[in-house]
Amino acid sequence: MHIFKKNSFGQYLIIKKLLIRIIGFISHYRFKYTLKINGSKHIIELPNKNVLFISNHQTYFADGIAILQMLNATINGRIDSIRNVNYLWQPKTNIYFIAAKETMNNGIIPKILSYTGSISVERTWREKGRDISRNINTKDVSNVSKALKDGWLITFPQGTTNAWAPIRKGTAHIIKKNKPIVIPIILDGFRRSFDKTGLKIKKKGALQKMVIKKPMKINYNASIEDITKDISLAIEQDESLRVIKK
Predict the structure, then answer these.
(1) Which of 217, 144, 134 lies closest to 177 in space, CA to CA?
(2) Residue 156: per-residue pLDDT
(3) Beta strands at 35-38 and 51-55: parallel, antiparallel or unpaired
(4) Neighbouring residues of 217: CB distance < 8 A, sequence distance ≥ 6
(5) 35: how many CB neighbours lie within 10 A of its CB?
(6) How far is residue 194's CA from residue 182's CA, in Å, rounded to a whole number?
(7) 95: which strand partners?
(8) Where are the alpha helices (DSSP H) in the chain?
(9) Is the pLDDT of residue 201 over 80?
(10) What's the order of all strands across the beta sheet hosting 181-188?
(11) DSSP per residue over 108-162, as a string?
(12) Mean pLDDT, to the nearest integer, of 145-149?
């Protein structure tokens, strides 16, 4: 029956839609008056599949939730606004986000959030606060491609909430392999507003900013290093911009 339809990852869409609504309604008040959006018009004519959103990262969860709010608001007719939360009644269920498996398995709230679209991957460079060196899990690579074939995917290429952290080359590999449309998003103010997890408000009334840029012009045949450099510039986390921003 249609009501029990599953997505490519075996998740029941009716449950996923319900969780998106609940989390969306609960979190909406945190962003309704403080989230300033610019450039969501670039979302309107995107295809339904094979779109990759790349963004800098400031908290574990608030960033992703805010992006999901913006995307669902935009596809339901709001431009640069998430006012009137009714857009959550018809959320886009084929939006996914890449997250560290360690983070998404840490507690009941992350596990619930995971069902809304997490593509959980094993970090190859860090685990439980210590540096490691681990081969890429081929299943993780397959799941990322599966998500892009099914819809839209959000990723934070730095893999950490630390500002100016280097871009992980995994995102460049994703781009070369799947050749998606790539949309950069710039976030600011989330560190002032929320604690590191993004689940607790740290400063009431502090503004968050979100800028959605035009699709990147990418040479898919370029080297991993060159694409990684382009990513760092696109999300404004390249070292060459650090002095300019101070």
Answers:
(1) 144
(2) 96
(3) unpaired
(4) none
(5) 22
(6) 27
(7) 152
(8) 13-31, 62-75, 101-104, 108-115, 138-150, 170-178, 190-193, 224-234, 239-245
(9) yes
(10) 35-38, 208-212, 181-188, 51-55, 152-155, 95-100, 118-121
(11) HHHHHHHHTTEEEE--SSEETTEE---PPPHHHHHHHHHHHHHSEEEE-TTSSSS
(12) 96
**Unique residue bearing structure tokens 């995994």:** 170
Residue with tokens 């596809």: 75
Residue 133 pLDDT exceeds 90: no
Q: Which residue has the higher pLDDT, 187 or 138?
A: 187
Least confident of 33-37, 138-142, 180-184: 138-142
Taking residues 94-113, what's their average pLDDT? 83
Measured distance CA(205)–CA(64) in Å, rounded: 19
| Dist. CA 208–CA 31, nearest whole Å | 8
Average pLDDT (120-129) is 64
> What is the amino acid identity at position 33?
Y
21 versus 128: which is more confidently predicted? 21
What are 160's two structure tokens? 């950490």
Separation CA 229–CA 225 (nearest Å): 6
- Say if residues 46 and 176 touch (Cβ distance below 8 Å): no
Structure tokens at 88: 């959550």
Integer Cα distance of 213 and 215 in angstroms:
7
* Distance of alpha carbon 42 from alpha carbon 95, whole angstroms: 16
Handedness of CA 62, 63, 65, 69 (dihedral sign): positive
